[in-house]
Amino acid sequence: MKNIRTIEEINEKISKGTINVVTAEEMTEIVKSNGIEVAAKDVDIVTTGTFGAMCSSGLFLNFGHADPPIKMEHVNLNGVEAYHGNAAVDVYLGVTKMHPERNFDYGGGHVIEDLVAGKEIELDATAYGTDCYPRKSVKTTFTLQDVNQAILCNPRNAYQKYNAATNGRDDVIYTYMGKLLPNYSNVSYSGAGELNPLTNDPDYETIGVGTRIFLGGGIGYVTGHGTQHDPTNKFGTIMVQGDLKQMDSKFLRGATYTNYGTSLYVGLGIPIPILNEGLAKKTSISDEEIKTNLLDYGIPRRGRPSLKETDYAELKSGKLKLKEREIPVQPLSSLKIAREVASTLKKWIDDGKFLIASPTQRLSVTEVCRSMKITKEAIFAQNVMIPTVTCNIDEDTETVARRIIEKNVNHVVVVDDGGILKGIVTSFDITKAVAKKEEKLSNVVTRQVVTTSPEEPIDSCVRKLKKHDISALPVVDSEKKILGIVTSEQISRLLGE
Amino acid sequence: MKARLRFDKEKTSEPIIASVILRTKAPINILRAEVYESTGEVLIEVPDDKAESTISAFKQMGVDVHVGHFIEILREKCIDCGHCITVCPVDAISAQSDLTVEIDQNKCVDCGACVDACPTRAIKLSE
């Protein structure tokens, strides 16, 4: 593609105050009404923005030396443990590390938000003491201004796009995609769609090592591609860093996901210089063109099948069609603040305060994201389930009692003629019924049965048993046909192996 | 008008709501009722013209009555993501045209489903 302007020319226009900069949402409209050729000629820079929870974020801090000096071994900041595997007074605070007592309500992300907001933070460190670092403990308070360096350093930010999430289970689940109601009753998603940084430069023509960006309300840099960077599947990511002292707590906010963990909302925006018509076309991408998949987060496995392909226009509409039903959809990221990121960056450029940096190296376009190598296979429900002893709802309790003794089991599953699960009775239910001379099975059966599928990991079966305080889970297929049963006896046996 | 009634343990077995209806002739709509270890809690809706007489009738019977807003969005904490909108069972939460999230107090039934869904803990139930 023939270049129509250079980064040097763009920076000259920024300095002179003659630059034409628009946001990615505005660019989509401009190209729609004026065409690519005119847009490429008129627009010098397109600004992007996103404001989402980015778990792979954290902060390097250097406190300076105490007197007598200490080589810190265990470090807590407002009670949240920071990683200390570096030099004496350097630490890394990860945003997902939680306060041991305040759990989901306070974690590393919240400490970072408090620091940026100018609040005082408690430092509590201990050490084993050495000849050169004799001190064994230090307790103090500090603010952002008291530390030497506070460098936000995020190994994976700004996913190009992300899956949308729903839940097909019959109870509420709490995930990193938020609170998902049972039976596909709500959908959540993340990302700003056509405003997303990497979506507007999907081949990383202008975004690379050294690209200057908006990060948390200050200026930051792309330092390379991020972890789990997956360009061939259009799931690119970037690694970024920036000086926390320049940042603003409006664009860095601690996040809490009930029963999941803590994180940090990061405001991140990248300017895309329109060097050629190809970039004008790419930055004109609309929400309709950004496809993503709706996944069932009720399935506790890595490979979750896609329920349907959707796009950001449908997601942003607030309603999604799934199997003839309209389901409410809302993001977990904030489009409102993403727009503020893009417009703030636009203003910085307009005001001549922000110059475009030419990347020194391009991001990988070929890297592939692999799954974890596992040397010992995990165990699933189908590996431990045993055949079920069944009965029919019309049988009497005494017959079922005899079957329990004969087969030596504690659970009998009630099925219809097609083998479809209708209920469950335990040996306790039957003992009680016999003692009370209750003959009708239908009066003692439990009809709301908690079940599992053959592919469910055994760890999540255990979670279900504990949550519902039960001792067995019938294994069923999608039609509720009974396949077997996982009992707590079977699970205990695994521990002995 | 909506009001939250709190009953003591001693009163949970008495037909208080029925008595108040008979006395005030107010068509009281029960939106939500819950029983805890030591108290019972009921959220009711009463037509505005019967509000005053109903409240005083409940108070006379020794019921703790709370009127007004039950839920609040703490603006300084809210990031307007909208996740709470999808978990509300009565569609009381919505996004305005500028994407600001708002709660319609008339629709809210004080259930608290949105509280633990909020990623910035910006929703507060009144005590």
Question: How is this structure best summarized?
Answer:
The complex is a heterodimer of chains A (497) and B (127). Chain A is of the alpha+beta class.
Q: What are the salient characteristics of this protein?
A:
heterodimer, A: 497 residues, alpha+beta, four-stranded antiparallel β-sheet, 12 helices, globular, B: alpha+beta, Alpha-Beta Plaits, two-stranded antiparallel sheet, 21% helix, 29% strand
SSE layout and pairings?
The complex is a heterodimer of chains A (497) and B (127).
Chain A: H1 7-16, E1 21-23, H2 24-34, H3 36-42, E2 45-47, E3 50-53, E4 58-62, E5 74-77, E6 80-82, E7 90-94, E8 98-99, E9 103-107, H4 108-116, E10 121-126, E11 137-142, E12 149-157, E13 164-166, E14 173-175, E15 178-180, E16 187-189, E17 208-209, E18 212-215, E19 218-225, E20 238-243, E21 252-257, E22 261-269, E23 271-273, H5 277-283, E24 291-296, E25 306-311, H6 312-316, E26 319-322, E27 325-331, H7 335-350, E28 361-362, H8 381-384, E29 389-391, H9 397-407, E30 411-415, E31 421-426, H10 427-435, H11 458-468, E32 472-476, E33 482-487, H12 488-496
Helix pairs in contact in A: 2-3, 3-5, 9-10
Chain B: E1 2-8, H1 16-24, E2 29-35, E3 39-45, H2 48-60, E4 64-67, E5 71-73, H3 83-87, E6 93-95, E7 101-103, E8 123-125
Antiparallel strand pairs in B: 1-3, 1-4, 2-3, 5-8, 6-7
Task: Please tell me about this protein's structure.
The complex is a heterodimer of chains A (497) and B (127). Chain A has 12 helices and 33 strands. Chain A has 497 residues and is of the alpha+beta class. The radius of gyration of chain A is 28 Å and the shape is globular. Helix content of chain A is 22%, strand content 31%. Chain A starts with 6 loop residues before the first helix and ends with a helix. The model of chain A has no long low-confidence stretch (mean pLDDT 94). The longest helix of chain A has 16 residues, at 335-350. In chain A, the strands form 10 sheets. In chain A, strands 3, 4, 7, 12, 18, 19, 20, 21 and 22 form a 9-stranded antiparallel beta sheet that branches. Chain A folds into 3 domains: 7-54 and 153-362, no CATH class; 64-147, no CATH class; 381-496, CBS-domain, CATH 3.10.580.10. Chain B has 127 residues and is of the alpha+beta class. Chain B folds into 2 domains: 2-67, Alpha-Beta Plaits; 71-125, Alpha-Beta Plaits (2-Layer Sandwich). Chain B is built from 3 helices and 8 strands. The radius of gyration of chain B is 16 Å and the shape is elongated. The mean pLDDT of chain B is 88. The A-B interface holds A 51, 53, 105, 174, 178-179, 181, 186-188, 253-258, 263, 265, 318, 328-337, 339 and B 79-87, 95, 98-100, 116-121.
